[in-house]
Amino acid sequence: MPEVPIVMPQLGESIAEATILTFNVAVGDTVEAEQDLIEVETNKATMSVPTLCGGVIKEICAEEGESYAVGSVLGVIDVTEEEIQRTGVSTLAQAQEEGSDEDSSDEEEANLHFKQDGEAYFEPKAIEPNVKGLPVPMGKKGAHYISPRMRARMNELGLQAADISAINGSGAGGRVTVADLESFLEYINAWPSSPASPMRRAVADAMRRSWSRPLATVARPVVMDKLLKYRSEQNPKPGLTLYVLRALALALAEHPEAAGYLIGGHIVHPRAFDIGLAVQVEDGVMVPVVRDVDTKSVADLAKDYANLVDLARARKLTEEHTKGGIATVTNFGTFGLTWGTPIPLPNETLILGISAGVKKPVWSEQVEAFIPVTEAELNLTFDHRVIDGGDAGRVLNRVAELLERPEQL
């Protein structure tokens, strides 16, 4: 009976690996075409790996909790000739024939090997995640220069420059040497630790790349009473974040240069005002993108907003849901926080955060007395290479103005 491999598919344009969470089948199980066989986790979402044809599971040659590169063989299915003809899938025999024309490095990448008698077998090799971190305390010195030898050792361990910044170096000018690194690793070896999830590693990598730019934050309070009253009169009542999302899109439509992205000697301006929405999920944050926010009312945005939040929390976002944003809104006020400095994604210039509302006495010229109002802090972090504080201030002031006149949203 022909055998067909179960292969780790390409789960997104920028995804090179995935971690196996659960096998939904066992050896000996009968499966149908398009049946979900394996749950995997990428750095963006949880997805299913389906079978391309029906048959009987002959072998599972991967392990739960391990990461495998795209193209890795995860198992083998016994398939009938009729099913091969119906679905057009490639068999092991065809893979063997194609593999004989490839060099050994290509065979290793596909995890396909051949015995001397020509029999094909698979030996999937788990790969180390490409982003790692260490639980390190704050240090006073770090490595501004990394020697080739040190870089080679860091590459072996999967370390970034940020991972060694807490080590007190004994080299010239405080440079961290390989001996310093090995001593530090031995020192923390007995510390409690836990593996970082693909989501946590993805967030760490994005923030490391973001912080390579000169970022700055401006802030101002906004009085929320009119917005809260206006929102309470709507049926159904939209989420507060929707108003902030809409206000930012309108402000950027008036000042599109503020959302530009610096590439070499050019600033690329936005072609659409698609705004990301930070959604807290287990062990990280996901940022689905709401499309054409400047052209839709808050009521029109509500369905898109609810659907994207549900998909994010279920870890079902696809690349189509997350690409193309020009800025992000994060409502950290839901955690009771009253101030913050959010960090924009590497491919965005801006991120707007809003804090929890707090009752404060504010002087009123009309009644010549202090009156209680609900104030929230708006925090706008931006790439200082693209815009300056004045430009950021104009955007932020316009956002505040719109939130204090919610009927315009």
UniProtKB/TrEMBL annotation:
A single GO molecular function term of this UniProt record: acyltransferase activity
Enzyme kind, highest EC tier: transferase
Family recorded in the similarity comment: Belongs to the 2-oxoacid dehydrogenase family.
Cofactor(s) essential for the protein: (R)-lipoate
Domain Lipoyl-binding: 3-78
Pfam families: 2-oxoacid_dh, Biotin_lipoyl, E3_binding
Composition skew (Acidic residues), residue ranges: 98-109
The entry's keywords: Acyltransferase, Lipoyl, Transferase
UniProt xrefs under InterPro entries: 2-oxoA_DH_lipoyl-BS (IPR003016), 2-oxoacid_DH_actylTfrase (IPR001078), 2-oxoacid_DH_E2_comp (IPR050743), Biotin_lipoyl (IPR000089), CAT-like_dom_sf (IPR023213), E3-bd_dom_sf (IPR036625), PSBD (IPR004167), Single_hybrid_motif (IPR011053)
Region spans: Disordered: 91-111
Stated name of the protein: Dihydrolipoamide acetyltransferase component of pyruvate dehydrogenase complex
Residues annotated as transmembrane: none
Source superkingdom: Bacteria
Location of the Peripheral subunit-binding (PSBD) domain: 145-185
